[in-house]
Amino acid sequence: MKNFLLIFFLFNFFYSANAQLVNEIRKTTDINSIVVYLDGAEITQEAVVSLKQGRNLIVFEGLSPSLDSKSIRVSTQEDISVLAISSKINYLTKIEEKPRIKQIRDSIDLLTNNINILTNEKTAFESERTMILSNQNIGGEDNGLTIDELKKAADFFRLRLTEINNNITEIDRKILKMNLLLENCNSELLELNANLNYQRAEISILLESPSVSTETIEIKYIVKNAGWTPVYDIRAEDLGKDIELIYRAKVFNNTNIDWNNVKLILSTGDPNLSAAKPEMRTWFLDYSSNSYSNNSPLYLDEGYMQNNVVSSEYQEYDRQEIISDGLTGGEDGRFVEVSIAELSAEFEITENYSIPADNKPYLVDVVEYNLPATYQHFSVPKIDRDAFLLARITGWEDLNLVEGNANIYFGGTYVGQSYISTRNVRDTLDISLGRDNKVLVTRSKLNEYSSVRFIGSNRKETLAYEMIVKNNRQTPVFIHILDQLPISQNSEIEVEAIELSNAIQDLATGELLWQFQLNSGESKRILLTFSIKYPKNHSIQIQQQRSKMMRVY
Predict the structure, then answer these.
(1) Residues 343-378 pLDDT 10s
(2) I want to staple 418 with a disulfide (CB 3.0 to 4.6 A). Which of 25, 277, 309, 436 is the partner?
């Protein structure tokens, strides 16, 4: 037994001696740079430390609790050996709250205390009122009161109960006012993201140094709850001029650590890539499953053209995809799937930025491009008589665009918001610049050429329309006009094209296309005449209609 105790004490002695040989250095450092990904961020920090010969334990303190322990990387000199890396949450760390948050919390404590005092005072008044009302029989059953005594007692009851009720009413008013202030303070705390985790993480690095030296130790690690969302400003001054594309980013930080005056790099890469070699899968090609359906009705409205980016060929418009508001990744905290280039891109921001850890989006300037563009107009006068101006941008593939919202300006005027979608766009990216009131398009029915005739058991209706396009601009314009013929789905219904004014016709969909150039001040007349024959004992809807909500009284 004595030998066992001796061995035990010797073991603890040598263990303690070896532990004391480890040189422990604790460091709190600022962030050097941050690579912000679409979902996540890579933090880089470094510290200058004085190493002793042998083992040294470097502890980086005050780090974000949302760091990924598997992502930690350490850079040292070649002769320094990294023996172990670990991380943990230091639950004993106490970080002081921001002054504004502390001020609001103090106000909440004061309001809560005052409400409790008033509530106690109200309870006392209510108890007194109950006592008075339950002891109204003052004289007892055998002893009556004189008129004088009864009058004094009645006056006392009336005055005291009135005073009690007034006090209770005033207390209720004060409590209500304080509760409103308390609600506002709690809302302000929520706005300031005050429910932060004030505990901090630590990264411990065990190093082996061959000699005494002063070294710079660099660590990199991935944190969650951060990212960026692209946002664009697209400006066009006039036809024939280049498009100015201003690339910006909304960066958010919810890592519990403020980023103060740091260098930012925005990346479209994946911060969670594995270290294993990539496996290449078979590359299949097929027609896009979300391309325009030929069975879809021809449709165009202001929201479609003015507020959305369109694809490079109108035959492939996907209304559902275009109308999607895409990301907004910012204020409401939603996440959506976006399409990005297979090869990731990085944007190095020249100026340093400060991004507080409040989960709010902060605008960061990325880069500006001047892009050559061609312009064309587009109109479907049977649905909307306005002409829409489209800018066609080539070479957009080299810009490393990420799908996102775009603010559109034309001629110095804000047109609306679009969504840049890069999924089904080919070598040309078409962007709607909104309605152009200098290109006039009218469509009217020619009653003198329209008729209804009965041929045997059939009814034949002839419909004639006239479209006039006029260019009031000082420069020529190239315009596409779309209309359509109905498609019969019954052998008894016959549709005959009589006059198409040399339109390009799609027999499968009935779509008609006229494309031409108009010089300044020039106008063009388009005639469209067709007939529909069907049994006269049946009725069909000749005129297309649309639905609209209306209030009914």
Answers:
(1) 567 888 989 999 988 888 999 999 888 888 889 999
(2) 309
Take residue 548 and report the two structure tokens written for it.
Answer: 């609209």
Strand 243-253, strand 226-236: pairing = antiparallel
9-48 confidence digits (pLDDT tens): 444 544 444 445 788 999 999 999 999 998 899 999 999 9
**How does pLDDT run across 92-101, given as a tens digit for each residue?**
776 666 777 7
DSSP three-state, residue 172: helix
Residue type, 10: L
The whole-angstrom separation of Cα 59 and Cα 82 is 13
Task: Provide φ and ψ at 101, rounded to 5°.
Answer: -65, -40
Closest among 261, 202, 196 to 34, alpha carbons compared? 261
Please give the Cα distance from 415 to 217 (Å, whole number).
52
Tell me the torsion sign for CA atoms 181, 187, 192, 196. positive
Please classify residue 183 by burial: count the beta carbons closer than 10 Å to its beta carbon, then call 0-12 exposed, 13-18 middle and 19+ buried.
exposed
Q: CA 170 from chain center: how many Å?
A: 47
List 374's β-bridge partners, or say none: 392
Give first-to-last CA distance, the chain, whole Å.
Answer: 101
Q: Strands 73-75 and 213-223: what pairing?
A: antiparallel
Question: For residue 121, which phi and psi values (nearest 5 degrees)?
Answer: -65, -40
